[in-house]
């Protein structure tokens, strides 16, 4: 149920040249950093791993990932950004976005997914921990022009038993 007892539809849509500006606008509102052209090229190149979230046909969130080759073969997923506009938090939008990417990892036998989280972002850290992510590293002075400048590397290792559904 949505606002006022009405059923509300939530959907995900792929990011492509035609709707890339929506991702750029969301990022401007959601994050304290500006993303360069490489970010957007990586987001487009990741295909199904980058999605926009719509709540009652309003674009309210996104997840943007980059696929990375691991040393010795294999692929891992880096979550460049995951964000939901403040009025729509707590409605399952972020969960739907992250679950979509985790399901893709399972289907494609990708065993590692990770991201950077600012050390004071307790809401994000707790959100990812609910999905089995763990803090695996701390990087000092990772960010420039925001305080604190430090980040955690938050990682989920997906074992074969988790990928077989």
Automatic annotation (TrEMBL):
Alphabetized UniProt keyword annotations: Acyltransferase, Transferase
Domain of life: Eukaryota
Keyword Transferase attached: yes
InterPro entries: Acyl_CoA_acyltransferase, GNAT_dom, N-term/lysine_N-AcTrnsfr
Gene Ontology MF: a single term: acyltransferase activity
Every N-acetyltransferase domain range: 10-159
Keyword Acyltransferase among record annotations: yes
Name this polypeptide is given: Acyl-CoA N-acyltransferase (NAT) superfamily protein
Source species of the chain: Forsythia ovata
């Amino acid at each position: 149920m949505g606002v006022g007892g009405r059923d509300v539809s939530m959907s995900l849509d792929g990011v492509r040249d035609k709707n890339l500006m929506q991702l750029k606008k969301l990022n401007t509102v959601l994050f304290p950093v500006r993303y360069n052209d490489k970010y957007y090229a990586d987001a487009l190149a990741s295909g199904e791993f980058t999605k926009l979230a719509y709540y009652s046909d309003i674009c309210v969130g996104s997840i943007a990932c980059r696929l990375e080759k691991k040393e010795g073969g294999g692929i891992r997923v880096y979550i460049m950004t995951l964000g939901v506009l403040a009025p729509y938090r707590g409605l399952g939008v972020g969960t739907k976005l992250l679950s979509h990417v985790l399901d893709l990892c399972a289907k494609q036998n990708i065993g590692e997914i990770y991201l950077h989280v600012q050390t004071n972002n307790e809401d994000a850290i707790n959100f990812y921990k609910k999905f089995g992510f763990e803090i695996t590293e701390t990087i000092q002075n990772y960010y420039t022009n925001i305080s604190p400048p430090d980040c955690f590397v938050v990682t989920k290792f997906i074992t074969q038993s988790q990928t077989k559904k």
